[in-house]
Design brief:
This protein is α/β, with parallel strands linked by helices. The protein is built from 4 helices and 12 strands. It has one domain (about 5-190): 3-Layer(aba) Sandwich (Dihydrofolate Reductase, subunit A).
């Protein structure tokens, strides 16, 4: 079974989007470099960010998101982002009307069931959990092995929190990766057990 990683770009004050769900400059680092991060050529980063991010992205087999992210992205038009094989959506609502049942999206109604399904689909590859409400719920449930953050030099002041509704203390190990890219600081922490 692969590891479970909570991941996202985040402001220095801990937000993944503003109050209106807009990420503002949080993803600018993904277009400010000269090294293509994927086949589309739309994402271009510094060589340092490429070396760190591409190696991680290549390990991901499944991404878990909440229904809110799924709806904001229009379900990526039924094609998982970044070459990921499957997306597990945590939701209490049914799949959208007219949704292609063959699309590699799986709709599950709680975080534990979502994790079980994701691990089954991922095998020995990484299960990525999107930062935010679902990520915070997974961390609180003890289901996350590692936290990765792409910290962007911006202060939002308010908005959608990286760890969502987590209201208890959770200890992380010292960072085992601190990598400075252009307009981003990549951090990686193991969750203390």
């Amino acid at each position: 079974m692969g590891k479970v990683v909570m991941y996202g770009s985040v402001s220095v004050d801990g937000f993944i989007a503003d109050e209106n769900d807009r990420p503002g400059p949080l993803f600018d680092w993904l277009s400010g470099g000269d090294v293509p991060l994927d086949e589309s050529g739309e994402l271009k980063v510094s060589q340092t960010s490429y070396d760190y991010t591409r190696a991680y992205w290549d390990q991901i087999g499944v991404t878990i998101v909440g229904r809110h992210v799924f709806d904001l992205t229009d379900g990526w038009d039924g094609k998982p982002p970044g070459g990921i094989d499957h997306v597990v959506v945590v939701t209490h609502r049914p799949r959208p009307e007219g949704w292609d049942p063959e699309a590699p999206f799986h709709f599950v109604d709680d975080v534990e069931a979502a994790m079980a399904r994701a691990q089954e689909l991922a095998g020995d590859r990484t299960v990525e959990v999107a930062a935010g409400d679902v990520g915070g719920q997974m961390l609180a449930a003890g289901l996350v092995d590692e936290v990765r953050m792409d910290v962007v030099p911006v202060v939002f002041g308010s908005g959608k929190r990286y760890f969502g509704p987590v209201d208890a203390q959770h200890l992380l190990e010292d960072p085992d990766a601190v990598i400075q890219g252009d307009r981003v600081l990549h951090l990686r922490y193991r969750v203390r057990r």
